[in-house]
Each structure stands twice: as structure tokens, then as C-alpha cells.
Amino acid sequence: MGCRPRAGSVRAGRRAVAGALLASALLAVPAVADPTPPAEPSVPYTCDFPVLGARVVSVVVGADLPVAVPVGAPSDGFPVRAAITLPAEVVEAMGAAGGTRVSGSVEVGVAVAGAEQPRTVPVQAPLAEAALPATGEVALSATGVFPEQVLRSAGLAQVSARGIALSLDPVAAPAWAPPSGGRVQVRCAPHEDAEADLGTTEVSASVDWAAPTELTVTATTATSVSLSWAPPGGRTVAAYEVRVGDSVVATVTEPTATLGDLRPGTEHSFTVQARDDIGRRSRASEPATARTPVSVVRRAYDIAAVTHHAALDLRLSLTGRADAELDVASGLSAVELELHDTSVRTRMFGLIPVEAVVAFDTGGTTATLSQDGLAVSTRVSVVLPSITLFGYPVSSGSSCRTSVPADIALHSDGAFDPLKGGSMSGTYTIPALAGCGDLTKALTAMASGPGNTLDLTLTVRPD
């Protein structure tokens, strides 16, 4: 609600009486108590103190309600001046409980009622610290601001104060602190015959201002969103406020803005309000929503693959694991690839039964993600650590292997979602073997050669 001073009214005293409670919940002055309360009548409240029980506390408040606020648009907050007087018996009891100063916070329920359903807004604020005197009363004073509200129905809105909850730091009365520690909680309620009316304000379309239009997301990065919009007509715009929920995240003078320091991989919703040169705000625009892309995707995948050896017309199943870290902005990925050992049975020269354990040394694996899909390039050395002929071992150890690593290029079949996994395929050539002793030439003739295929499925591992 706006902050313009209201003209004098015969009801000012009555409004100020009930408003005293509101001020006690809005104690936001600097940390020195002002002993001079506003010149308005006090309102009696009953507060339930530890040890003492129910005691009457005097509260005084004054509020500068606006004459009118716009319908359907956030209104400016309004200032509230307040003072709470703790009676002498409460002060003495707090001193007996070890207290020397009063500090803490307060919450008050402030009700707004009019043509629409009444609402109660909890308002919280820190208490201004004050010293406890040895005897006599102590006055706590503050000026706070009631938060802006959106009233969607035109008509007269009544503003009044409700119950108060004090939350006192243990230093106020250490012996009153709960056994589990923490603050001393004191609840206060107005007397039944106490006037709690803070006043009225007119909710009217006559003070309304149309919203900016065509709010559009023009660009996104992992940590930023750029927006543009069309200015509202009817008034000269001094500035625009870009909001996320109820919070203003940017103030600009042109109908564009870029919001940074956003969380990657998150949906963000924005609205925009215009403001004129005396602080009046327009309605809020329709929201625009954008999702910032994930900057780095880290995923572990299970590998299930089938390779077809062209020369032997042999299919071999493979399993393994891939750990990938993908930079979404560049599309480049660092990959650690692991293929598990497997075994193969075939016949050398079509006659001699051969059984071999096949192992893989992997290295130099890279990946690139684009709109066309995922491309992976890797180098794999094929190792035969165990070979048997007719069931008799003829070779063992890691020396029998391809003379150079095989270069394998794989590509997904269309777009690839790194968060879900997918399938890839490619062809490769097996280089000549080396280090296999007398079997080197025969194994090279049998195993090496081009035209071999690899079909691979990446399945995301559960966290």
C-alpha cells in the first residue's frame, strides 16, 4: 500500500488505538529504544508471561494509511509507529530472572478485510534492544513497514490489528528460558473491548495502471535468462521492476533485462511491473517462464553391447561401464570407459577349436553432444590373456594383443538425451596382433581386418 500521509480524521484516535499492536510487531528501529511514544491513546493487551502469568501491557500505535490503493496490483507498504510499555512488575520480575536488557523479535497478525475474503498477514520484526531499569516501566519503540499486498476487489478495505507473539532472547530473563534452550515465548491478546481498528483505505480502479505486455524470454544460459517486454501506456515510466515471486530481482530503465546468478537446470518464472516518477506501480505482467539448461551433466552408464566380427561372422556380447562428465555449453565430455572381460570360441582355419579370453585396455575416450546426437571416439587395445587349442593352453599373459589400439567411432541414432541414455553404433578395424609367439601370424590372419560393427546401449545407472 502507498505511503502518502492521510489527512486528519475524527477516527484517527480510534485507528491508532488498535494499531498499537501492529507496531509492536514491526519494531524495526535502530538498536536504541525511543522512550517517547506516538501521541495516540494506548490499547491494553493481556500478555501471558512465564512465572508471572497474565499481565496487562500498554501498546500505542500510529499508522499512515494511504487514501487509496490500486485494485489487482501490488500496493506499497505503509509506515507504522509504535511503542510497547512493559509495566514495573514485569520489569522487576525479568530482573529477578537475571535479565539486564530486552531484545528479540515480535510477530503480529494484521487483518485486511473488504469486498473480498478477509486475510491476516503475519508481520515479523526485530525488537529494538533496551536496558532494563532497576525499577519502573520500560518503553520499547519502533517504526516498521507493513508489507505490500494485492487486493483484487474494489471497495473499502478495513485494516486492523490482531494478536501479538513476543519472542524474547534469553538475556531478557535467563531463568525464564525453556529447559531445551531458545527464546522465551510470550503471547498477547487485546482486551475484548479494545478498539483494534487501524483505519480504512479505498481499493479503486481509478488509481490502477495497466501492466507491461509481451513479456518474452529472449535467451537463456546455464546461469542467466534475458527478457524483453512492451511498456504500458498511460504514464511515463521511470523504471521497471523484475520480480521472482514477491521479490524484486532487478530494477532497469529500459524494457529489457538479463538476470544472472541463476541455478542451472531450474525453472524460473518472472513478472515485470512499471514504476512512475513518484513511485506508483503498474499491475504485474503475465508471467514468463524459462528453464536454465544444466551446465555440467555427470552420469554413469551401464554398457550392453554386441560386436559382429566380419571375417569370422561371429557375434560377441560385451558389458561395461562409462562415467561421463558433459559440459552442456560446449557439448564436450570427458569419459572414463571400462569394458569387462569376455570369452570367445571359434575354429582356426575352420578346423582347430580355439577358445580365448578377450580383455580390453581402453583410453583416450572423448564425446561430443550436438543437436545431431552424441558422437564418441575411443581407442581400445584388444588383449588375449588366455588362449587354448583343443582344450590345451598355448598362450597366457598380456603380451598377446593388437599391435596398436583400434580406433572406434560411435554415433547415436538421432538426438541423444544424456539424462536418459540411449543407443549408439559404429564400425571399426581390428589391427594386426603382436606378442602372441608362434600364433601371431595365424591369429592376425584370423582376427584382424575391417568391417566389424559395434552396437551399444547406454543405460543410466541408478544413483
Q: How would you describe what is shown here?
A:
The protein folds into 3 domains: 195 residues, Immunoglobulin-like (Sandwich); 83 residues, Immunoglobulins (Immunoglobulin-like, Sandwich); 165 residues. It is 6% helix and 55% strand. By secondary structure, it is mainly beta. A hairpin with a 4-residue loop joins strand 19 and strand 20. The longest helix has 13 residues.
How would you describe this structure in keywords?
8-stranded antiparallel β-barrel; elongated; 10-stranded mixed beta sheet; mainly beta; Immunoglobulin-like; disordered N terminus; 463 residues; 3 domains; 6% helix; 3 helices
Topology:
Elements: H1 12-24, E1 42-49, E2 53-63, E3 68-70, E4 78-86, H2 88-96, E5 101-113, E6 119-131, E7 138-146, E8 155-168, E9 184-190, E10 197-204, E11 213-220, E12 225-230, E13 239-244, E14 247-252, E15 256-259, E16 267-275, E17 288-291, E18 296-309, E19 314-327, E20 332-339, E21 342-348, E22 352-370, E23 373-389, E24 392-396, E25 401-402, E26 406-412, E27 421-430, E28 433-434, H3 440-447, E29 449-460
Parallel strand pairs: 3-10
Antiparallel strand pairs: 1-2, 1-9, 2-4, 4-7, 5-6, 5-8, 8-9, 8-10, 11-12, 12-15, 13-14, 13-16, 16-17, 18-19, 18-29, 19-20, 20-22, 21-22, 22-23, 23-24, 23-26, 25-28, 26-27, 27-29
Number of helices: 3
The structural class is mainly beta
Q: Summarize the amount of helix as a percent range.
A: under 10%
CATH architecture of the largest domain: Sandwich
Distance between the termini: 49 Å
Number of β-strand runs: 29
Tell me the strand percentage band: over 45%
Shape assignment: elongated
Gyration radius, in Å: 38 Å
Number of domain units: 3
CATH topology of the largest domain: Immunoglobulin-like
Query: Residue-averaged pLDDT, rounded?
Result: 83
Q: How is the main sheet built?
A: 10 strands, mixed
CATH top level of the largest domain is: Mainly Beta
Any low-confidence stretches, pLDDT <50, length ≥5? Answer: 1-39
